[in-house]
Amino acid sequence: MSRKQIAAANWKMNLTVQQGEELLDNIINKPHHLNDNQLVIFAIPAPYLTMAQHKIAEKKGVYVAAQNCFSKKSGAYTGEISVEMLTSLGIQFVVLGHSERREYFNESNAFLAEKINICLENNIQPIFCCGEPLSIREADTQNEYVAKQLKESLYHLSAEQLAKVIIAYEPIWAIGTGKTASSAQAQEMHAFIRKDIAHVYGTEVADSISILYGGSVKAANAVEIFSQPDVDGGLVGGASLIADEFVAIINALQ
Ligand code: 13P
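A: This is the predicted complex of the input protein with 1,3-dihydroxyacetonephosphate.
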């Protein structure tokens, strides 16, 4: 089967539980045309995971993700969230390595490798974020930059493990700025990422991995971006907080 097409919402640190419930209701009860190869994933604040799990329980192809987890199994790590906590809630996905966590919480490629490991050991699929800052794009060294992120956080994995990872390419200069990468820029990087994976793991593994684009995706540009051959959907911030916008983005999946 061809790789999954995915519309993923990243609510970040937004909304009260009441607002979150209303938003979920407004999205999942609107008609969309998900086929068996398409998924919708809501990466939501940790306190709302149980609420959201209940809401989407009957919805085929719809999943809830955590926005983060810790690298240790359990213990004296006040405030952190373990993968065991997530699996005990039935959560199957977690966003890792978002640029905001890399920047504000100093998450390194090596630290993210540890988080990736514990997720895969516990059957949680990571949505691994990568992407370059503006200075790197301006210097035209984005390929090397992203290749290093992939190598240092993912390429110790077996092929079987890597096949469970979802990759999200999010150029930092396009996040929350309204400045989307052009569909050609997105395609170019996604094709590069797939080629880099193929170089290490072979084309079969590379072709099976979903690579999502993130950075100012909205209803107005989703069809164009998702139509690129190596773009398998999106990881959406701001527009995922508006029901009509996110429903249109789901319906833009190819
Ligand atoms: P925006 O869609 O708000 O640019 O955010 C993208 C993002 O960071 C998703 O993880």
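Residues 10, 98, 170, 175-176, 214-217, 235-239 surround 1,3-dihydroxyacetonephosphate (CB under 6 Å). The longest helix spans residues 183-201.
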